[in-house]
UniProtKB/TrEMBL annotation:
InterPro entries assigned: GH (IPR017853), GH_1_N_CS (IPR033132), Glyco_hydro_1 (IPR001360)
Keyword Hydrolase carried by entry: yes
PANTHER family: GLYCOSYL HYDROLASE, LP05116P
Record field: catalytic activity: Hydrolysis of terminal, non-reducing beta-D-glucosyl residues with release of beta-D-glucose
Protein family (similarity comment): Belongs to the glycosyl hydrolase 1 family.
Organism lineage: Eukaryota, Fungi, Dikarya, Ascomycota, Pezizomycotina
Gene Ontology MF term list: cellobiose glucosidase activity
Keywords assigned by UniProt, alphabetized: Glycosidase, Hydrolase
Descriptive protein name: beta-glucosidase
Length: 480
């Protein structure tokens, strides 16, 4: 028997994102997103692939619902493709009823199966037309208004069918990976070997600022015109890893640990809860970090009904001496897998950035709860890839014990945070329901509890973890 319990109404399930699973990029009037165009540039995706077919989920909604049922999921977090709904993206552009109907029907099907839909409005796939028209997220005036318009179209179509809304998924990733390192769409960076355009020292901070304003405008719209009658809640999902000092006896490393979290999570979290950026960021970035006008600060402050948390791993952190580089986005520090004593933070996975460390999940839940005054938290992603999984024969691959252990460790840490530390965490979505298009890594890296046979007609085969997750939650959730 576990020594911690989760409440009876704890909402658990699985997550995916539109571009990673849907395929059907040109069907029923959908237009390109920045990921469609990015994938066409040679060298950007490890295996030269794209989301053109992916899991073919656009044609297999029934199969996906059945899979969720089979896994005993209570909820499903998925994202909408903006360019299916408004192909050209903008507030004066036509709405594509076919695209919109597809999602309304999917929501109806989920609800009929007793699965709570949790909708992410934006999981990185900006309509390409908006990127070309005015620079997408770099353009505050246009982007904020167009996102609010898109959100309103969706709120109106879904009405009271949807109770959980997430505006943006991981704005850190779209800002830093899309506008600083250039690894993600639209691939802008100061590194001229990768892109002829971009300014890593400025653009990510502008994009981040505009995400916050777009988020807050959509939340205001929902609260003013939909929330009372439709009864949903809305928030933003932020990603962030736990940090441990490289040298626990060096106060500068201990301080750098906090600073790393501020640069990755509080960049967005502090404006949402406090109406301002962290002091550590202002100090390092100066006027490259945009200022909120009084009106903007008031709009952004208080714009979460819940905190959406994506969490995967932890790192050791070593402070750096001297002036930070203008392109630095970490807080002037090194992100490491080994500490001073040579101990690893966790085992290797297929993802170069991901080393599991379950105790960090409990610590970060508490850290965030303390910083933001005990907000309601929904964990909107957590999961792992497995080193070499893609090269295993099918029978072996389906016995994903490493992933089962990961979930045992992380869900255990979550239950401890709830039951022992008093963190108000009410839901958990595993990443992912099935293997899917893992962005710049293509299909080599698998995160699913379900194997997808990309060469065999996208057939799905549940792995051991697909059943184990349900067993883990059964063991923690109070039944009396
Ligand atoms: C998240 N990093 O992305 C995303 O929300 C998912 O779409 C994705 O498939 C999943 O995690 C697994 O990668 C991340 O480099 C991508 O630190 C990269 C990083 C973190 C999160």
């Amino acid at each position: 028997m576990p020594d911690a319990v989760l409440p009876q109404d704890f909402l658990w399930g699985f997550a995916t994102a539109s571009y990673q699973v849907e395929g059907a990029p040109h069907e029923d009037g959908r237009a390109d997103s920045i990921w469609d165009t990015f994938c066409r540039i040679p060298g950007k995706i490890a295996d030269g692939s794209s989301g053109d077919v992916a899991c073919d989920s656009y044609h297999r909604t029934q199969e996906d619902v059945a899979l969720l049922k089979q896994c005993r999921a209570k909820a499903y977090r998925f994202s909408l493709s903006w360019s299916r709904i408004i192909p050209l993206g903008g507030r004066s552009d036509p709405v594509n009823e076919k695209g919109l109907r597809h999602y309304v029907k999917f929501v109806d099907d989920l609800r009929a199966a007793g699965i709570e839909p949790m909708i992410t409005l934006f999981h990185w796939d900006l309509p390409d037309a908006l990127h070309k028209r005015y620079g997408g997220m770099l353009n505050k005036e246009e982007f904020v208004k167009d996102f609010e318009n898109y959100a309103r179209v969706v709120f109106k179509a879904m009405g009271s069918k949807v109770k959980f809304w997430i505006t943006f998924n991981e704005p850190w990733c779209s800002s830093i990976l899309g506008y600083s390192t250039g690894l993600f769409a639209p691939g802008r960076t100061s590194d001229r070997t990768k892109s002829s355009e971009g300014d890593s020292s400025r653009e990510p901070w502008i994009v981040g600022h505009n995400f916050l304003l777009a988020h807050a405008s959509a939340v205001k719209a929902y609260r003013e015109d939909f929330k009372d009658k439709d009864g949903g809640r809305i928030g933003i999902t932020l990603n962030g890893d736990w940090t441990e000092p490289w040298d626990a006896n060096d106060p500068a490393d201990v301080e750098a640990c906090n600073r790393k979290i501020e640069f990755s999570i509080c960049w967005f979290g502090d404006p949402v809860y406090f109406g301002k950026y962290p002091d550590s960021m202002r100090k390092q970035l100066g006027d490259r970090l945009p200022e909120f006008t009084e009106e903007e600060a008031a709009l952004v402050k208080g714009s979460n009904d819940f905190y959406g948390m994506n969490h995967y791993c932890a790192n050791y952190i070593k402070h750096k001496e001297g002036e930070p580089e203008p392109e630095d986005f970490t807080g002037n520090l090194e992100i490491l897998f080994y500490n001073k004593a040579g101990e690893a933070i966790g085992p290797e996975t297929q993802s170069v950035w991901l080393r599991p460390h379950p105790p960090g999940f409990r610590k970060l839940l508490k850290w965030l709860s303390d910083r933001y005054g005990g907000p309601t938290i929904y964990v909107t992603e957590n999961g792992t890839s497995l080193k070499g999984e893609n090269s295993l024969p099918l029978e072996q691959l389906l016995q994903d014990d490493f992933r089962c252990e990961y979930y045992r460790g992380y869900v255990g840490a979550l239950a401890d945070a709830y039951d022992k530390d008093g963190v108000d965490v009410r839901g958990y979505m595993a990443w992912s329901l099935m293997d899917n298009f893992e962005w710049a890594e293509g299909y080599e890296t698998r995160f699913g509890v379900t194997y997808v046979d990309y060469k065999g007609g996208q057939k799905r085969y549940p792995k051991k973890s697909a059943k184990v997750i349900g067993d883990i939650f059964d063991s923690y959730i109070k039944t009396d």
